TrEMBL record:
One of its GO terms (molecular function) is ATP binding. Gene3D superfamilies: P-loop containing nucleotide triphosphate hydrolases. This is ABC transporter ATP-binding protein. Keywords: ATP-binding, Nucleotide-binding, Transport. InterPro entries: AAA+_ATPase, ABC_transporter-like_ATP-bd, ABC_transporter_ATP-binding, P-loop_NTPase. PANTHER family: ABC TRANSPORTER ATP-BINDING PROTEIN (PTHR42711), ABC TRANSPORTER ATP-BINDING PROTEIN NATA (PTHR42711:SF5). Residues 4-234 form the ABC transporter domain. It comes from Natrarchaeobius chitinivorans. Pfam families: ABC_tran.
Length: 251
């Protein structure tokens, strides 16, 4: 059974069809790239997967659970990193991560252990007691990444994971995502960055006009030009991103 399964998902906002017959599956052990330009329907799909919005039609299961009818169970087992999300301004990173761990039913000792581990891994140990209003946008993004993983979820849904991070931390996060999927978890990364998709994903679905218009397996390796060509063929020159290649870090 797929860790994530979406069949014929549709969602409109007034006369605008944001998602139009979206279908795909993500297996455990996969790092699936959801690649498309802004406005392609990526964020609406993620919000449906996490039970934040109710689609007009279609079926969704995440770890065998319907996120629309049982959103709390879905969020308990799933890590979520929203695009441009921010921690609560009135909490410190430690307080926020402890809150998230408690909501996700972690034992207090495990919460403390995971909080310290993530602060060390992402380099914000000396900011654990600092209010989020006093953190830089990059530091806040590190905290948001930590909260998505602090409860050791089986599925992680990530919207533009590298926003506001410096290049060194970007590479660290990319390597961690690859390792996390390789351990048997399902990692779903939504991005408009072709280079990010090519460098870490095992499979990519190209999204346009609210549906997946092409899929490509990257497990056997593919050069940047090939993925870019597929993107241009199905999406068009106007939505292409002229990004430098960094090379694949997939094992």
């Amino acid at each position: 059974m797929d860790a994530i399964r979406v069949d014929e998902l549709c969602k409109s906002y007034g006369s605008v069809r944001a998602v139009d017959g979206m279908s795909f599956g993500v297996e455990r052990g996969e790092l699936f790239g959801f690649l498309g330009p802004n406005g392609a329907g990526k964020t609406t799909t993620i919000r449906s997967l996490t039970g934040q919005i109710r689609p007009d039609s279609g079926e969704i299961t995440v770890l065998g659970t319907d996120p629309i009818t049982d959103p709390l169970e879905t969020r308990r087992r799933v890590g979520i990193l929203p695009e441009q999300g921010s921690p609560p301004s009135f909490l410190t990173p430690r307080e926020y991560l402890e809150f998230v761990g408690t909501v996700r039913d972690l034992e207090p000792d495990r919460i403390r252990e995971n909080t310290e581990r993530w602060a060390d891994r992402l380099g914000f140990q000396n900011k654990l007691e600092t209010l989020h209003t006093d953190l830089s946008r990059g530091q806040q993004q590190k905290v948001m990444i930590a909260q998505a993983f602090v409860h050791d979820p089986e599925v992680v849904l990530i919207d533009e994971p590298l926003a506001n991070l410096d290049p060194l931390v970007q590479e660290q996060v990319k390597r961690f995502l690859v390792d996390y999927a390789a351990k048997g978890n399902a990692v779903f990364v939504s991005t408009h960055n072709i280079d990010v998709a090519e460098s870490i994903c095992t499979r990519v679905g190209i999204v346009a006009d609210g549906a997946i218009v092409a899929e490509r397996s990257l497990e056997d390796g593919v050069d940047d030009a090939s993925l870019l060509e597929v993107f241009l063929e199905h999406v068009g020159d106007a939505d292409a991103r002229d990004l430098p290649a960094t090379g694949s870090i997939r094992p």
